[in-house]
Design brief:
Blueprint: H1 16-30, E1 37-38, H2 50-63, H3 79-90, E2 101-104, H4 107-113, E3 123-128, H5 133-141, E4 144-149, E5 168-172, H6 184-197, E6 200-204, E7 230-235, H7 236-240, E8 248-251, E9 257-258, E10 261-262, H8 263-274, H9 280-289, H10 292-319, E11 323-325, E12 331-335, H11 342-353, E13 355-356, E14 358-359, E15 370-374, H12 379-393
Parallel strand pairs: 1-13, 3-4, 3-5, 5-6, 6-7
Antiparallel strand pairs: 2-8, 7-8, 9-10, 11-12, 12-15, 14-15
Helix pairs in contact: 2-9, 3-9, 10-12
The structure holds pyridoxal-5'-phosphate (PLP).
Pyridoxal-5'-phosphate binds near residues 106, 107, 172 and 248.
Length: about 400
């Protein structure tokens, strides 16, 4: 009889968003007159920039003419897009070669798929709380996982210590869900640790475009020594509203060698075998993101979300509630007031303010007692939600 990958049986059901949905549904059924505001979603709400839409329309036209029609493209992405990404990184002082960039349908797939090129005997280090995909994809392969606590004491930015042992290290900066961002000095500690121990850092930069503080690194390759120990995942999902359009990229430097093999070559082999590339139309749209006009238009959208974040953090400041994130991230991570637990605060906000956020405990045990709000809403909703929250908390 066919056997299955038994590691899948070790996956915990991810109840977080299901449970949120159920509680909101129950509340709405009992209170049909209440207008619920959702500040919990991690998906963008503004449309694609006009320059991107124009580029995709033109590309659709190319597909209508035999002279410009495209069939299968290069699995690792068209040169025009890889060159645009090289130019974008040069803007942060990072020199890349086009064949170190692998275009994909988004960061989530690459983060999961990269594990194909690593042995199952690697010890994995994952911060807690964090984006759940890192944990689940390693459970699927049966790897040994250690969690590293991310908490108020370390500013939700854990660093390597003398007891740290790991072969694969996940770092997410700006972080989902905490919004915390590593400084260059802090990332350097991880890079030095990885280079001295032979570990590999899997760096998730999905939210790099939200960094407004110029002193903070947007790419791990801004750090000396990272080219010999890190892989970077990035995506146009949050940078340019591509969550439904789908395009991302992974950078594997040629200096990254483990077990005598160049990881760049292994990943190329993996991608050319199991992936057939991103559609030409989407890649033309992605190319437009990296033009001067594309950067200007997509940054306008990010500024809009940033102002929503300011509406949220201003209200938290007035309430004297501790939080991190918001300034260089679409996420605001707050400590639940009055010692409430995450789900207790969720129910309280839903009941008293009809506002929905995300309980921090859903991202890991260190998230207990914390709560995530996001700036991906419209302005009026952010303002109304925070006015309601202030009204119910200001006398507490
Ligand atoms: N990495 C992080 C930290 C995320 O929060 C997300 C999506 O929410 C992703 C990666 C996945 O992005 P993509 O849409 O490119 O698959």
């Amino acid at each position: 009889m066919t056997s299955i990958n038994k590691n899948y049986l070790n996956l915990k059901q991810n109840y977080l968003f299901y449970e949120i949905g159920q509680r909101v549904k129950n509340f709405s059924e009992k209170n049909p007159d209440k207008k619920i505001i959702r500040l919990g979603i991690g998906d963008v709400t503004l449309p694609l920039a006009p320059v991107v839409v124009e580029a995709m329309k033109k590309a659709a036209g190319d597909m209508a003419d035999a002279a410009t029609f495209k069939g299968y493209g290069p699995e690792q992405g068209y040169e025009f897009l890889k060159d645009a990404i090289v130019g974008y990184y040069a803007g942060c002082g990072v020199a890349l070669e086009a064949d170190e960039i692998f275009v994909s349908d988004g960061a989530k797939s690459d983060i999961g798929n990269i594990l194909d090129i690593f042995g199952e005997d690697n010890k994995v280090l994952i911060p807690d709380p964090v984006y759940p995909v890192y944990m689940d994809t390693n459970i699927m392969d049966g790897r040994d996982i250690t969690l590293i606590d991310s908490n108020m004491e370390n500013g939700f930015l854990p660093l390597p210590g003398k007891d740290t042992r790991a072969d694969l290290i996940y770092l997410c900066s700006p972080n989902n869900p905490t919004g915390a961002v590593y400084s260059a000095e802090q990332l350097k500690q991880w890079v030095d640790f990885a280079n001295s121990s032979g570990a590999v850092i899997l760096f998730d930069a999905a939210y790099e475009a939200f960094i407004s503080d110029k002193s903070l690194p947007r790419s791990i390759f801004e750090i000396d020594g990272a080219r010999s120990c890190a892989v970077e995942f990035c995506s146009l999902s949050k940078t340019a509203g591509f969550t439904g359009t789908r395009c991302g990229y992974t950078i594997v430097p040629k200096e990254l060698v483990r077990d005598g093999a160049e990881l760049n070559k292994l990943w190329l082999r993996r991608q050319t075998t199991k992936f057939n590339g991103v559609s030409y139309i989407v890649q033309r749209g992605a190319q437009a993101v990296f033009t001067d006009e594309g950067i200007r238009q997509t940054r306008e959208n990010i500024d809009y979300y940033r102002k929503n974040a300011k509406v949220i953090t201003d209200a938290l400041d007035r309430l004297g509630i501790w939080y991190c994130g918001g300034l260089n991230s679409p996420y605001i991570w707050l400590r639940c007031p009055n010692g409430m637990k995450s789900w207790e605060f969720f129910d309280f906000l839903l009941r008293e303010a009809n506002v929905v956020g995300t309980p921090g405990e859903g991202f890991g045990k260190c998230g207990e007692g914390f709560f995530r709000l996001t700036s991906f809403s419209d302005r009026a909703s952010a303002e109304e939600a925070m006015a309601r929250i202030e009204a119910i908390l200001k006398n507490n």
